[in-house]
Specification:
single chain; alpha+beta; five-stranded antiparallel sheet; two-stranded antiparallel ribbon; binds adenosine-5'-triphosphate; Prot_kinase_dom; non-specific serine/threonine protein kinase; serine/threonine-protein kinase
């Protein structure tokens, strides 16, 4: 129940605060959040009042948005608790606003997960949509890998990161969401050294269908829920089902799941390995397609198992410093994904066995297909790992240096640029405004940095 004072409070909120409450103000979840905020602590309404945010620097730019490091001028004047603000120009991409809202809605479902970000707040006007999440000062796993001598991680480091990623994906899947964009660039390192996933615009809710004449998400040979080892999981998975079981159904696109045409396989922001000195980033080569599962290329229905495939690609890349199916062209990469066998070097190990089982082309035979994350957690590579206390590990493999946040020197300059940017966005008729077609206007500003 929403107390009437809450409604009154909303009524008297200034417009900009109502923006903070974003998209669907009448939605129950939103109202209950407001009610909770009012009942517990005063809301942090100014958080995404852009006039009160100061930009420190640009953290990164992707296909959809630009991410700034910002801080709140009155609550945190010395920028001790900066956060990431992702800004998407509605005109920058087709359906940019829809994708942005989708990302916000996915984020708003994560509250207290150690390896997933949460939504601090959001703002929308007719030009931009932006939202804030906690800042991850350690960069991403790709950057980190390139800082290693042989551009690969040790088996122990891979074990740690894969374990955390599995926990994050498990949380996604238990909510019925398939992530679909697992790649090292989307795995950020928090101040604590633990990872967090980012970039959810490609994620998707799987359809829920009535259980009658449909099979639950389990082994084709053992299709009783009782056979799922973890009864808690069995209950959860009941909600997410595929229409017919096995390969035959998949090959005939009988899964009832949407085809993969929305999956991004176009160039994305994979950074140029030679440009990893601070702040130098490049969009120069293509990344995501190397992670695409065979069933996506085939256009079959696809589901959670695509994330386990991508986990296999990721594990391989962390181990050998290169992805397993990389070709000279997209066509060749896709051919290799569909037909090629990953090449393993050196002695077989539990890690290579895990990767091999994740890179199984038939999704129904892929590790993780039958019982989700549980099945992967039980693999020999993770024997002895205490999953419950993973988040308590105080010495993760790499800790971001404190001074990696230390960019405050340029604060004033950045502030001027960024505020000017927002000013221009809000006042397109301003004489300074010079929109460049097909180009995010921010690039113009960034090139001046
Ligand atoms: N919370 C954060 N902390 C630190 N850096 C971040 C954070 N969020 C994003 N970034 C940086 O900004 C970059 C772009 O962010 P993101 O991947 O979310 O944008 P995008 O436009 O959706 O990218 P893509 O092209 O992959 O779709 C990231 O690669 C990362 O370097």
């Amino acid at each position: 129940m929403i107390p009437s004072c809450a409604i009154a409070y909303i009524y008297f909120l200034p417009i900009k605060h109502i923006c903070y409450l974003h998209t669907n103000i009448v939605s129950l979840s939103c109202l209950s959040k407001i009610a909770m905020a009012i009942n517990t602590a005063p809301p942090a309404p100014d958080l995404l009042d852009l006039d009160n945010l100061r930009a420190i620097k640009v953290l990164g730019k992707g296909a959809m948005g630009t991410v700034f490091l910002v801080h709140h001028m009155s609550n945190d004047p010395f920028a001790h608790r900066p956060f990431a603000l992702k800004v998407v120009e509605k005109s920058s991409l087709r359906h940019a606003d829809r994708r942005a809202r989708h990302e916000i809605s996915v984020l708003s479902r994560f509250h207290n997960h150690p390896f997933l970000p949460y939504l601090i707040g959001s703002f929308e006007n007719h030009e931009i949509i932006c939202w804030a999440t906690p800042f991850c000062p350690g960069g991403d796993l790709n950057e980190l890998r390139y800082r290693q001598n042989d551009r690969a991680f040790s088996s122990a480091v891979i074990r740690f990161y894969l374990a955390e990623i599995i926990c994050a994906l498990e949380h996604f899947h238990l909510q019925g969401i398939v992530y679909r964009d697992l790649k090292p660039e989307n795995i950020l390192v928090q101040q604590s050294g633990h990872i967090t996933l980012t970039d959810f615009d490609l994620s998707r809710n799987l359809v829920q269908r009535k259980p009658d004449n449909l099979q639950i998400y389990s082994d084709p040979q053992e299709n009783s829920p009782a056979n799922l080892k973890n009864p808690h999981l069995a209950g959860k998975f009941k909600r997410f089902i595929i229409s017919k079981r096995g390969k035959h159904a998949l090959n005939n696109n009988m899964t009832g799941l949407k085809k993969a045409k929305s999956a991004r396989v176009s160039p994305v922001s994979r950074r140029n390995p030679d440009d990893f000195s601070r702040n130098e980033r490049s969009n120069s080569f293509v990344g995501t397609e190397e992670y695409v599962a065979p069933e996506i290329i085939r256009g079959d229905g696809h589901e959670f198992a695509v994330d386990w495939w991508a986990l296999g690609v990721l594990g391989y890349e962390m181990l050998y410093g290169t992805t397993p199916f990389k070709g000279k062209s997209r066509k060749e990469t896709f051919q290799k994904i569909l037909l090629g066998r990953p090449e393993f070097f050196g002695k077989p190990s539990p890690l290579t066995d895990l990767i091999r089982k994740l890179l199984e082309k038939d999704p129904t035979r892929r590790l993780g297909y039958r019982r989700g994350a549980c099945e992967i957690k039980e693999h020999e590579f993770f024997h002895g790992l205490k999953w419950d206390v993973l988040k308590e590990v105080v010495r993760p493999p790499f800790l971001p240096l404190k001074d990696e946040i230390g960019v405050i020197d340029d604060l004033v300059k950045c502030e001027i640029y960024i505020m000017e940017y927002f000013h221009k966005l809000k006042n397109p008729s301003s004489p300074l405004w010079s929109p460049t077609p097909n180009e995010c206007q921010l690039n113009v500003l960034l090139s001046e940095f």
